[in-house]
């Protein structure tokens, strides 16, 4: 048109999307996808031992901090993770929604930090490329896509929705901070020393959150090969300096590796050949579930006998060999594959069964640290797509992310409570003794004795050396009126595990029912000696002592039970009954009210309180 300047037709450069906006969107989407987590409860899968019956972590006072920094509770040394849980208690008390909210927020922060890390790695990779760098927005898009792929993948649910695994989200946060600071130290000569030592400190903090991050020195070696391209051989002076700067990370990692072995006391479960087979199976399993995240379970139980000739083990070995071969063949044309696979392998290594810990052959949570490398590999593969197909690939990727988000939303619901958790585990594997027996325990709580007993018996038949199954069989028989059968089941459990406090306490219950007070007291004392934190054994012993008019001794055990479990309604009720029988009705009423404050549906407490108040009038 006349009068218009040619300058108006000049192409305009697209404005870069602000980093804060990308970060805010990533964190918001992640939190929304995990929105169901805010309504979850504690589950009967270590949460009971870690939180419900554990007084030691509750708060950030001197006694709690002393415990956090000296305990190897359940085989882990994770003081910084315990401190976040102590803060949760200060904020939320024993309301599980608050604990889950903290985990979701930390996971959302991790998605934002991984975006920053992925962006830095993509920029470093492109700086060394022969072709012109991709536009900044496209690199931001790839980094954001990779971070979101990691954050909303269903394999992340176990680490985020299970409060016990708080150590995963805390340790990853500090690990990513450490890597970001290290990258900054390599890019900013003026402040190199400051960023470097801050990186070392952040790594130490990550180790204090969960020791499995000990593989960072190996990760830094890989990153210095690609994409940083700072390692060129041991004879090169610059390469030797790189190796020297990794030494402090290696010293810290070695120290925590030794500490972890001391903490775990790993049993000699597997032979060397079996460990290799399980490790190959685990690697292939995680790759497969990353690509097709269906049929996920809270427990993939380790079979009683592992053989290298099993099809699933052979399949795992084959998958590992094929991917490793491809990484080696294409290491020059596609170095990202070799780097991502190497990082995935070394980060997963501590959880692969080399040091077997626990009853699982694999676990979704074991991908929380290693999954980031695969997410970035998938996202960055977009650069290899022909330009005319890139929009199509972006559209397909968006659809896949939506599907993953829906699957994660559904998977989160499985962690609602112990019932939904173990029902899912049995649905996936109905031959898992642990899952069957755990579901039986839930059904006993619901007073579904017949079905619970059937599940307990099946678990005992599948695993004749699994003592909790025989203990649960005893519970079912006792509640069915078969005291002789229950006694036999408890005694068999004790032959399998002589210091099994629950079986000892349950034998005391049978003896008390049969009027054998002396035997009941003996069994309760044995149970408490085996496990001083067994609140039920303290309550049971208190009841027997109260019936012998040894009120002061009985009250001591009721107090111990409530110290261990302040929400033990029966301890308050039984304490009240003991006082009422001693004609101390005013004090008894206090404990009946306390029982009702814990459990408003405690029918007996309500009835006894009414009687006590009526007599006092």
Question: Could you provide a short overview of the structure?
Answer:
The chain has 28 helices and two strands. The protein has helices spanning 19-33, 47-52, 62-68, 79-92, 96-127, 136-151, 157-161, 166-187, 192-207, 216-225, 237-264, 272-291, 311-329, 335-348, 371-380, 390-413, 418-428, 433-445, 449-462, 467-479, 483-496, 501-513, 517-530, 535-547, 551-564, 569-581, 585-598, 603-616; strands spanning 300-301, 360-362.
Summarize the topology.
Blueprint: H1 19-33, H2 47-52, H3 62-68, H4 79-92, H5 96-127, H6 136-151, H7 157-161, H8 166-187, H9 192-207, H10 216-225, H11 237-264, H12 272-291, E1 300-301, H13 311-329, H14 335-348, E2 360-362, H15 371-380, H16 390-413, H17 418-428, H18 433-445, H19 449-462, H20 467-479, H21 483-496, H22 501-513, H23 517-530, H24 535-547, H25 551-564, H26 569-581, H27 585-598, H28 603-616
Antiparallel strand pairs: 1-2
